[in-house]
Amino acid sequence: MNLKHYKYVRIQGKELARNTMHAKGVFSMCWQMIQDEIMEEEDRDLYLEIDSWFAEHLPWPPQCKRQEPVICWFKAEKAEEMMKMIRPALWLLERYHQEYYLVFTNFPGEIVYEDEYQVAALTDGEIKIADVQESWSPED
Predict the structure, then answer these.
(1) What is the spatial distance between Cα 32 and Cα 26, in angstroms, rounded to a whole number?
(2) Contact, 74 vs 27, CB < 8 A?
(3) Measured between alpha carbons, how far is 20 from 126 in angstroms, rounded to an integer?
(4) How sure is the predictor about 136, in pLDDT bands with cuts at 50, 70 and 90?
(5) Which residues are CB-contacts of 68 (< 8 A; sequence separation ≥ 6)?
(6) Can you give the residue ranges of every domain in the chain?
(7) Residue 61 DSSP SS3
(8) pLDDT value of residue 137
């Protein structure tokens, strides 16, 4: 699989955000650990430095400020710089045993915000659960 074929990348966990019904992103995951007082003070300070850098260099979509049902994706073509700066936050997630996933897509949903580094896409707020299909493995 060639990752250069993807337009967008997102770092997310397993816990769903109520307003989007999608997995929380890396920033929400770290802030949740701070609010739940899980992080040690030194780690909290590290995350606050990371968050401060992003606040200075990455615009905050107005839809996110208003907690609208959107999820944000880094543009893959610009992700290298963002990923370099987010690595310490990933280290914090690992340190506190918070599972996360890198998700790649070309179809983030209806884009309602875009800047140089990211897009915000609308979600429909629904969880779709499919029935288990019949096995396609050969019978023994």
Answers:
(1) 10
(2) no
(3) 8
(4) confident
(5) 19, 122
(6) 3-122
(7) coil
(8) 80
The gap from C-alpha 121 to its chain's centroid, in whole angstroms, comes to: 12
This prediction's pTM? 0.86
Per-residue pLDDT at 30 exceeds 70: yes
For range 77-93, the mean pLDDT = 91
Environment class of 44 (CB within 10 Å of its CB; exposed 0-12, middle 13-18, buried 19+): middle
Return phi, psi of residue 115, to 5°. Answer: -135, -165
- The closest of 40, 41, 42, 14 to 28, measured between CA atoms, is 14
Torsion, CA 111, CA 115, CA 119, CA 122, rounded to 10: -40
Q: What is the distance between the alpha carbons of residues 42 and 25, in angstroms, rounded to a whole number?
A: 22
Cα separation, 102 vs 11, in Å, equals 5
